[in-house]
Amino acid sequence: MKSVAENVWTLRYPLPLLGNDLGRTVMIIILESGKLVIHSTGAFTDSDVAAICKLGEPAWLLDATLFHDSFAKEGRAAFPNIPYLAPPRFDSVADVQSRPLSPAPAEWADELDVVPLAGMPKVQEHVMFHRPSRTLIVCDCLFNLGASGSVWTRFFTRYFMGLRHGVGMSLFFRLMIKDRAAFKESIRPVLACDFQRIVVGHGDPLEHNTKTLLIEQLRAHGLSPI
Fold first, then answer.
1. What pTM did the predictor assign?
2. Spans of the chain, pLDDT less than 70
């Protein structure tokens, strides 16, 4: 487990795809009340659960996109007694029971915002913003897989995912946007957030010039509302 900001911790799990490891990032957010929001599910071990519980009281478990169902059952089994929040139709996709992620629970007010991305009916990604640490949390909207790795990994990220240097908005994510006008409008509240870092669902956190990076990616693909 690694601390990326005050009251924000991450756990990383392998996620193999066509000979590559995209990785899965799980975030643990400590609210002022001491309750924990566990963002994303992973292959939690007993020691992982114990380490999470040392941070505070697990109160909510969530997945923020229909495409992050890989570890849903493992996550539910590890934390069976707390609300599991997810986008619409996640129950049928992951075969687990969940409650709506949006609107956000009242206890998150002034600390944790939830912004659904529109125009992507098969994805339903929800971006989140932790105000105290100025941390933006995305699932597949951005990747940061780096420029290292095997020749195959570099080839895969560059030509199959469309990520120059392993960083950016993937080709697959862009293809899932069916209503570009709706997506552009829904991304406005995200750009209005005062974030200084972005924690991505796959890869290392982005720490430098993050708003500029996001805006450049949106403009490069004709998706910027500004």
1. 0.94
2. 147-149
